[in-house]
Amino acid sequence: MRSPGLGRVCLVAAGALGDPALLPWVLDRLDVAPLARLAGEALSRITGAPIEGALRGAPAPGFDAGPSDDPRDTSVKMDPDTQLPWPHGANARALWAAHRGRFASGVRHVDGRPLDEGALDRVLRLGGQRRRAGAAFERAARAPGRPLFDVAARVERQRAALGASP
pTM (2 decimals)? Predict the structure, then answer.
């Protein structure tokens, strides 16, 4: 986490690991424009609090997310976080201060729940595509030999695989 240039990787790892002990570091990244949206996603993955309503903020002032229409601009790299909402840092910190007692450090969490099969199945049923893909990998890693849950399959097949009614 101290290595320059690895902030993005560390935020993705923090969200995947799900340990609330990492949230003070994650919350500090909410004020770093290029990392803010990814930090919001990590916060949301651990706590289950969606970045909407009071937790949704405005884009960072002056932040240039990607290629411009200027033909002289040599940067053509697309913003990897374009689909992620901007978090409101102060409100996110207040939420964490109010609810941190619900979360045990050293215990992995996913969407606000201790990480177990039930929590992973819940993410597979209700989560967005990025979270569902992460839950599928986590589920397969927890049971060697179990095939990877196909989050790209038709919804009827996914529901059947989860034992859910249509």
Answer: 0.86
With beta carbons less than 8 A apart as the criterion, state whether 122 and 31 touch. Answer: no
CA dihedral sign, ordered 34, 45, 43, 142? negative
Task: Provide the residue ranges of all domains of the chain, joining segments of one domain with +.
Answer: 1-60+84-104, 116-166
**Predicted pLDDT of residue 162:** 87
Higher-confidence residue of 3 and 150: namely 150
Dump the DSSP string for 67-92: --S-TT----PPPTTTTSPPB-HHHH
The structure tokens listed for 80 are 């990897």
Q: What is the DSSP letter of 113?
A: E
The CA-atom distances, in angstroms, between 117 and each of 113, 121, 134 are 11, 6, 13
Does pLDDT of 4 surpass 90? no
Residue 159: CB atoms within 10 A of its CB come to 15
**Amino acid 156: pLDDT:** 87
